[in-house]
Amino acid sequence: MEISVDRERCLGAGMCALTAPEVFDQDTESGRVLLLNAVPSPTQAPAARKAAYICPSGAITVTGPRPAADELSVGAGGANSGPAGRSGG
Ligand code: SF4
């Protein structure tokens, strides 16, 4: 999987950094998202996918193959697991 972020859409809510701190952080000045790791490891992927799902602004896009069944066990529900992520807005 691969992650991209649209910092212009980011509201600075910080849900991503709380959910997947190894993948996302926030700019200390603007509060907007900082992408720490665009290609999360298999252990980071479930939290990164969940962060994309709960982001209130749809600023996080997930691309790549659908997750394995064990990746979904984090409770994200997989609703944002399609190859196009949340890009539809
Ligand atoms: S959860 Fe979304 S809106 Fe909030 S900081 Fe992360 S990318 Fe920005």
From TrEMBL:
Compositionally biased intervals (Gly residues): 75-89
Matches recorded under Gene3D superfamilies: 3.30.70.20
Start and end residues of each 4Fe-4S ferredoxin-type domain: 1-29
Region of interest called Disordered, as start-end residue ranges on this chain: 65-89
Cofactor(s) the record lists: [3Fe-4S] cluster
Pfam families per UniProt: Fer4_13
Gene Ontology molecular function: any one: iron ion binding
Function: Ferredoxins are iron-sulfur proteins that transfer electrons in a wide variety of metabolic reactions.
Full protein name: Ferredoxin
Source species: Streptomyces netropsis
